[in-house]
């Protein structure tokens, strides 16, 4: 049983503050970034990982983040205290950076989110914009 608990802990995001959390479907949410406690010299360490939580089963899935070919692309730098907003239209602005993530949730074929701002604690405040495409 202890081994099973350790495996479950490895399949979930680390404890963190200031993460972005937004609804994907009626039974799942998307988590981006946030900061976790580092050692005394590091202080808060920002993340740029992306997760989906199935709220019916309490199961997390870490998404693969891939650089997209549109708008310069790239993976957003680690950050916390950013905003993540669902986009109603599937078209994205050519001036924003586009990042693609993949998942195995069969209820969701494709959805886009606007990631803006945030900061790397005590080092940098971000004024960039990314479009996160979550797709199968």
Shape: globular
Portion in beta strands = 35-45%
The tally of beta strands, per DSSP, is: 13
Poorly predicted spans = 68-72, 90-95
Order of helices and strands: HEEEEEEEEEEEEE
Question: What is the multimeric organization of the chains shown?
Answer: single chain
The chain-level structural class is mainly beta
Number of helices: 1
| Chain-averaged pLDDT | 80
Ends: how far apart? 32 Å
Alpha-carbon Rg, integer: 15 Å
- State the share of residues found in helices, binned by percent: under 10%
Biggest sheet statistics: 5 strands, mixed
Lateral arrangement of strands in the main beta sheet: 7-9-13-10-8
What does this 3D model show about the protein?
The chain is 7% helix and 43% strand. By secondary structure, it is mainly beta. Strand 1 and strand 2 (28-32) form a beta hairpin. The longest helix has 9 residues, at 2-10. The chain is globular and about 40 Å long.
Key features of this structure:
5-stranded mixed beta sheet
Summary, kept brief:
With 136 residues, the protein is mainly beta. The protein is 7% helix and 43% strand.
List the helices and strands and how they pair.
Elements: H1 2-10, E1 20-25, E2 28-32, E3 35-37, E4 44-46, E5 50-54, E6 59-62, E7 64-67, E8 83-86, E9 97-102, E10 110-116, E11 119-120, E12 124-125, E13 129-135
Parallel strand pairs: 9-13
Antiparallel strand pairs: 1-2, 2-5, 3-4, 5-6, 7-9, 8-10, 10-13, 11-12
